[in-house]
Amino acid sequence: MTCMMRLEHKLFFLIVATFLAGCATPNPVGVRAKFDDTKVRSVTVFPAYSLASFGLSASESAYVGRVYTEAMVEWAHGAGLQVVTLDELKANLGDKAKQSINDGYPPTLPLDRAFEPKEVEFIGAEVEMVQKLSELQALPTDAILVGEIVYQTEGRCEEPATEHSDRAWVDGQQEMEDCLVSHFQAKLVHIPSGETIWHNRALLERRAIASPETRLRTIKQAVAMTLQGAGGATSVLGTAAKQSVATRP
C-alpha cells in the first residue's frame, strides 16, 4: 500500500479533536449495567467501518478496513468464541434479510452513538436492522461484534496523546516525532434488542517510521487493546480462553 496521508503539525490537533468528540458522549465504556449477567459465547462479526477516508484512496481505505476486520475476527477466535463473519451470514440469507442489512449497516453515526436506546420516538436504522434480522431468525449468534475506525493515519506527533486522554497509549521511541496512529472503538450488540452490551475505545500512538509491518502491528494492537485491554469485553464472555495478542505497547 502506498504511503498514507502526512499531516505534519496538524496531526496533533486532529487527534485531540477525535478525543474531544469521544468525551462529549455520556455513554460509558465497559459492560452496561443491564447486561452484567450476560455471557456471550458466539458473535457475528460485522466489518469495521469509518465515517471518513482520512485522506486515503478508495483502495487504501478498503485495505485498512479489511485489516481491522481481520483483527476483530482473530481476536474473537482467540477468545474462544464461535465466530460467523458477515459474508458467511449473507451466504445463507434470503433477499429480505440481506436488504435489512443494506438498510442498517454501516451506521451513519459514530459507534459511540449507534446501537443506543433513543429518548425520542424512533428507532435507529442499525437497531431496526438487528431487530428485523432477529425476527427473521437470521442471526445464529448471541451478539454482534462491530467496530469503528475513528482515526487512522501516519504523520508527526508533537505531543503524546496521553496528555489529553486516559484512553490513549504511546509506544516506541519517545524522542521521535514520526508516528502512526490507530484509534478504534468497538461494541458487542445484543440480539434481539439491538442495544449495546459493551463498548470500549483505545488510541495507540506508535512513535516509529511507517512501514507495512509497523502499520499492521499498530492496527492489530489497537484492536486488541480495545477488545481485551482496560475496559475490554473479557468479563462478558462466556469462554475461558486467554488471549495471546499483547494489549499494551
Number of helices: 6
Basic shape: globular
List the helices and strands in order: HEEHEHHHEEEEH
How many beta strands in the DSSP annotation?
Answer: 7
Runs in which pLDDT lies below 50 for 5 or more consecutive residues are 1-26
Distance between the termini: 24 Å
CATH architectural type of the domain at 10-35 and 42-86 and 141-231: 3-Layer(aba) Sandwich
The name CATH uses for the topology of the domain at 10-35 and 42-86 and 141-231 is Rossmann fold
Would you tell me the overall average pLDDT? 85
Cα-based radius of gyration, to the nearest Å: 18 Å
* Helix vs. strand class: alpha/beta
**What percentage of residues falls in helices of 4 or more residues?**
25-40%
Q: Which CATH first-tier class of the domain at 10-35 and 42-86 and 141-231 would you pick? A: Alpha Beta
Q: What percent of residues are in strands? A: 15-25%
Report on the biggest sheet. 7 strands, mixed
Describe this structure in words.
With 249 residues, the protein is an alpha/beta fold. The chain has a domain at 10-35 and 42-86 and 141-231: Rossmann fold, CATH 3.40.50. The protein contains six helices and seven strands; from the N terminus they run αββαβαααββββα. Strands 1, 2, 3, 4, 5, 6 and 7 form a seven-stranded mixed sheet that branches. Helix 2 packs across helix 6 (212-228) and helix 4 runs antiparallel to helix 5. It is globular and about 55 Å long.
